[in-house]
Amino acid sequence: MSDVPASRISALRVTITNQALVRSDGRYVLYWMTAARRTTWNFALQRAVEWATHLKRPLVVFEPLRCDYQWASERFHAFVVQGMADNAAACTAAGVTYLPYVEDVAGNGRGLLEHLASEAAVVIGDDYPYFFLPRMVAAAAVKLPVRFEVVDGNGLLPLRATVAASATAYAFRRILQKNLRPHLDAMPLAEPLKRAPKLPLPTLPTGWGSRWRAADPTLFSGSTAALAHLPIDHAVGVVGMRGGSTAAEKQLTQFLANGLARYHEDRNVVDDSAASGLSPWLHFGHLSAHQAVANVLAREAWSPQRLGSKADGKREGWWGVTSGPESFLDELVTWRELGHHYCFHRPAHETYEDLPAWARATLEAHAQDPREHVYTVEQFADARTHDPLWNAAQRELRSEGRMHNYLRMLWGKKVLEWTRHPREALAILTELNNRYAVDGRDPNSSSGISWCLGRFDRPWAPQRPIFGQIRYMSSANTLKKIRLKGYLERYGERGAQQHLF
What is the DSSP string of 321-377? Predict the structure, then answer.
């Protein structure tokens, strides 16, 4: 038997984080599920199954949820625990041990991973380039007594397939067009649990079931009542979207049927939009980008021979599909993965100093320009500005946990215009987005917010007050370009009475 299992996963996706060895007498293979919170189309779970098969050990899936992460709230907790219900059902059906843990007091979960790892043969985790997860993985690597691998399932192009962050979508698109082809032949297994070895369930270390207990399944409803006892922000309440892979696949199916074909024309339409709405499930790992891409390409009866031969960075023509799918793939692959690779290569990506030099220069040159309106973060949060359209967008974000993509760009530009300094604008945008957006705290969120201040963009003429050469957007022009009557009726001041804050 070789030291490591044979794998169909690209070596670029698998990283050994420590010097510890595989424990020959370990009772099980432990998968620590933190970012790819799903049992389908999951490279990390697939790798754990490979190890379990190779070592002839049962698989244990451990999915924890701490309560003290920044912006922890009912909204985000509900989405995660609803996903736990789907994962529990899938693991039970496959005969795999599933350990859901929801921390009820800050710090109570400390030591649990090391405790479970103490009797594991090997530990597999998720490789994710954003929020507190890289720090958490680095800390675990020092403490775990056995080999600890993390697996990158973030996107179609592995994070380690690039050597630096790209400055523009055009530059990153050229990299994709040059390097993506072999990775399209190495998609994750749709149902990796089917290959898990059929072995008796393992005995878990003493302490699980006493000091640490599995989450009560009644918590998986994600209701306000079920979450009431947890020390999280209860002012940011649950929303209508349900978390989990089942809901994600339902949303994907609806989009493929109703939005994909007209995506290139109607994704910026607010009422009856063709936008996919998939970002919350992509963010929480309940849906894999690989699954979405595979479904799109299957509908097009696609084959690799249809890929373009030139890495010219053009948005159209390379995928060899029709206009709607091509536009969607550019958003899902180019723009989404641009953000992931940027965060991976630039640890300071959320700082003002990490904005492009030209953007900082023009913003600083106009930092002292007079502002007609200046608002505090509380006024922004409560949608108390002079602009009815901006207020409506903020109400949608606060009550629904989402905002239409085009309006989110306008939303960000106006915060830049109505704050005392662009550095303050960046801080306020990050706070509002990460507090309320179900798809916040994500590389895509970071990309969208920083785009409003010039990242991934170019200088624009003419020079404007406050903005300088930063791309300008206005509510007046937006109202001319997009039909917003229905939207304003729902989220305008009158409609706000129906949307609880």
Answer: S-HHHHHHHIIIIIIHHHHHHHHHH-TTTTSGGGS-HHHHHHHHHTTTS--S----H
- Looking at the predicted structure, is the pLDDT value of residue 142 above 50? yes
Residue 272 pLDDT: 87
Question: Position 187: which residue type?
Answer: M
285-303: pLDDT as tens digits: 999 999 999 999 999 999 9
Token pair 């020092």 in the structure block, residue: 142
Q: Which residues contact 249 (CB under 8 A, 6 or more apart)?
A: 287, 291
Mean pLDDT of the chain: 96
Give bridge partners of residue 233 from the DSSP assignment: 73
- DSSP-assigned letters across all residues of 294-318: HHHHHHTT--GGGS-S-----SSSS
Residues near 29 by beta carbon (within 8 Å), at least 6 away in sequence: 48, 51, 52, 55, 57, 58, 59, 60, 120, 121, 122, 123, 124
Give the rounded distance of the alpha carbon of 212 from its chain centre.
28
What structural domains and CATH numbers belong to the chain?
Answer: 1-153 (3.40.50.620), 245-345 (1.25.40.80), 352-498 (1.10.579.10)
Tokens representing residue 266 in the block: 């109607």
Predicted pLDDT at 2: 56
The neighbour count for residue 322, using CB atoms within 10 Å, is 13
pTM: predicted TM-score of the whole model, two decimal places: 0.96
Whole-angstrom distance, CA of residue 246 vs CA of residue 293: 17
* 123: helix, strand or coil: strand
Q: How far is CA 153 from CA 192, 230, 287, 356, in A?
A: 14, 30, 11, 28
